[in-house]
Amino acid sequence: MTTYKIVMLPGDGIGPEVMDQAKRVLITISELHNLDLELIERPCGFEYLHETGEPWPEGTFELCRDVADAVLLGAIGRADNAKTLAVGEHSPGRIIVLGLRSGLGLYANVRPVMLFPNIMHNISGEFRPLWPVENVDMVIVRENTEGFYAIQKNEDSALSGVSDEVTDKRIITKKGSELITRFAFELARGRSGAPVDGKRRVTCVDKSNVLNGCRLFRETYNSVAWDYPEIGRDHKFVDAFTLALLQNPENFDVVVTTNLFGDILTDLAAVLQGGLGMAPSANIGVDSGMFEPVHGSAPDIAGKNIANPIGMILSMQMMLKWLGERKDDDILQQSAGDLSRAVENYFKNGRSLPIEVGGDADPSAVTNKIIEQLKKINVN
Ligand code: ATP
Q: Model pTM?
């Protein structure tokens, strides 16, 4: 039996709270399917930096690069805003999150946007259902190693401290644009199209009417699209897209965009899902994968035992699916399928839902219900 090594980086704020829940689910799955998983946990983040002077224990990057079959990340963020970094000190977010993304070549950030049944959206302090469940089912694919967040090339501006004028460089390359747009078209091939008409399409979101980098991105998208005649082309400027995303989510199947736009758009898209705590993501490269919820450390709710663990649990589900496909391991793929059914059954059932989406269940109660569903699926 193959042993899979999973490196877990819980991080700051609610990161460890949601990671604990994902770990409980993962252990249950490994028992139910007799998987051989080695879970390797490392502390990291702002808190760790303030305790030790380092963002993570020495050798953690190499552990993720050379030993891990997959990496699970909670969240890196400033749990206590009063603790500021010294001038010139490297931010743990840059070193850990951006460092792993660029150091492991994780060029594709994949963020599924799905709405489950019985979700209530908290808008202006009131919980209500908003979109029909079947209208929200898209994947936003975000370029992950270039743009404004390109860590190596953009180091100076990010660390220069305060001055009266600063410039942030944005790197967009033809090679990076081709990789990510091809990834998006390949993804669309395996999906069943946009909810509105069941037609497969890839929407390119950019600001190519103003920005040169976006022009290159769109031209590259257009040339890649010729290789996929069966998949529809669609273009949107990023400002218009924000409106269309919330007004008519049913029109979108796969959306591909640049790094910063993707970062902002997927927080907005989380509104369609019921909140940030619902949103999972995968960072995929040629040889590595790192999986993390879309949300950050959420300092406003950390320690209150109210965080929604679903985004983290679904990120772990994406990890099982990716690892199963990569290693051609049927049992891993089956466990990923079971977990996705268990989460769906849990929402259909509608009891003990997360507080964020109108329920009353703390993180551990949510996990108990998912584990219950997993066990039911494996008995049947
Ligand atoms: P960071 O600086 O680490 O990115 P942040 O506060 O800027 O943290 P998020 O952590 O992404 O950003 O949180 C944004 C908002 O969404 C907060 O009000 C937070 O409480 C809410 N939120 C985020 N994650 C969850 C979750 N898992 N469950 C419930 N609410 C969440």
A: 0.94
Express each pLDDT in 185-227 by its tens digit: 999 999 999 999 999 999 999 999 999 999 999 999 999 999 9
Whether 366 and 297 map to the same domain: the answer is yes
- Active-site annotation holds for 267: yes
- Closest ligand 1 atom to the C-alpha of 312? 27
In a mutational test of the pocket of ligand 1, which residue from 83, 149, 295 has the highest number of ligand atoms less than 8 Å from its CB? 295
Residues in contact with 269: Cβ distance below 8 Å, sequence separation at least 6, in sequence order: 111, 113, 138, 140, 245, 279
Q: How far apart are CA 222 and CA 74, in angstroms?
A: 36
Nearest to 28 by CA among 267, 356, 373, 282: 373
Nearest CA to ligand 1 atom 15: 298
Is 239 an annotated catalytic residue? yes
Domain-ending residue, one of 273, 296, 322: 273
Residue 312: partners with Cβ closer than 8 Å, 6 or more residues away: 18, 19, 21, 22, 74, 280, 292, 293
**Cβ of 294 less than 6 Å from ligand 1:** no
